Amino acid sequence: MSARAFIDEFKTIMHLTLPKRYGDRQSDRLDAFYAEQSSSYDLFRDRLLHGREQLMRAIPVPTGGSLVDMGGGTGRNLEWLGERLVSVASVTVVDLCASLLHIADQRIRSNGWQNVRTRLADVTTYAPPEGLVDAVTFSYSLTMIPNWFDAVENAYAILKPGGYIGVVDFYVSDKWPNEGMVRHSGFYRNFWPAWFGYSNVFLNPDHLTYLRRLFEMIRLDEKKGKVPYLPGLKAPFYLFVGRKPFSV
Q1: How far apart are CA 207 and CA 151, in angstroms?
Q2: How far is CA 99 from the centre of its chain?
Q3: In degrees rounded to 5, what are phi and psi of residue 133?
Q4: Where does the chain show beta strands of DSSP type E?
Q5: Long-range pairs for 200-206: beta carbons < 8 A, 24 or more residues apart
Q6: Coil, helix or strand for 51?
Q7: Distance between CA atoms of residues 81 and 219, nearest Å
Q8: d(CA 171, CA 202)
Q9: What residue segments make up the domains of the chain, in order of their start?
Q10: Which of 47, 110, 143, 150 is deepest in the core (most CB within 10 A)?
Q11: For the domain bounded by 51-243, which CATH number is listed?
Q12: Helix-strand-coil split of the chain, %, nearest 5
């Protein structure tokens, strides 16, 4: 790691560990947290946020289709679409954090992505102007949305029948999870919500339950990933791909 990269990462760690400035609105709180670390956001989080590449490679987006990345921040996720990106008609990165979308706009220009746009909007109410879309993704954003129920329901509403949702995020299991699902220890169920909650990231076992209730499950991975500067500890995360039923 270069000296500049180390300094940028150190700044990010300071923002994660020192007291934060808050605002009355979610957008204010996000910008207060991310504004000074937006330029180094991806460097640290590429090592913290596991499964994003696997999610973007797994989400089915048809040729000529449309994708909305909810809480997509800097647009980093789109790079993992690889050559598939050019075959998609439209990709929209939606986020409430203007400073992160500024980085996304720079990424779009530098890569010459003509089919990608950003929208400063609330993912719980965002409605694509072109109508229903083929795929929606949430990459480590549900845990940062206070009313995440509305975010998932809005994703359901804007998806075409048969459209796909992909989610990757931190979580902890229920004390007594459904058969076939991972059960985390009491330490994990208490430590990780407290640790992440300090940065307004709220782990919740209900995310997976609700996703499985609304969507036909195509894929579910429950794993653990390393956390930078916390040797010996791994944070649990899940990767979910589901399909909106053709009929209810």
Answers
A1: 11
A2: 16
A3: -120, 170
A4: 66-70, 90-95, 116-120, 133-139, 159-170, 216-226, 234-243
A5: 200/20, 200/29, 200/33, 200/144, 201/143, 201/144, 201/170, 202/143, 202/144, 202/146, 203/143, 203/170, 203/171, 203/172, 204/143, 204/148, 204/171, 204/172, 205/171, 205/172, 205/173, 205/174, 205/177
A6: coil
A7: 18
A8: 8
A9: 51-243
A10: 143
A11: 3.40.50.150
A12: 45, 25, 35
DSSP string, 5-37: HHHHHHHHHHHHHSPPP--SSHHHHHHHHHGGG
Sheet holding 66-70, edge to edge: 116-120, 90-95, 66-70, 133-139, 159-170, 234-243, 216-226
**Residue pLDDT, tens place only, 206-221:** 999 999 999 999 999 9
**Helix axis angle, 41-48 to 98-111, nearest 10°:** 90
Length of the chain (residues): 248
For tokens 């409605």, name the residue.
127
Share of the chain above pLDDT 90, in %: 70
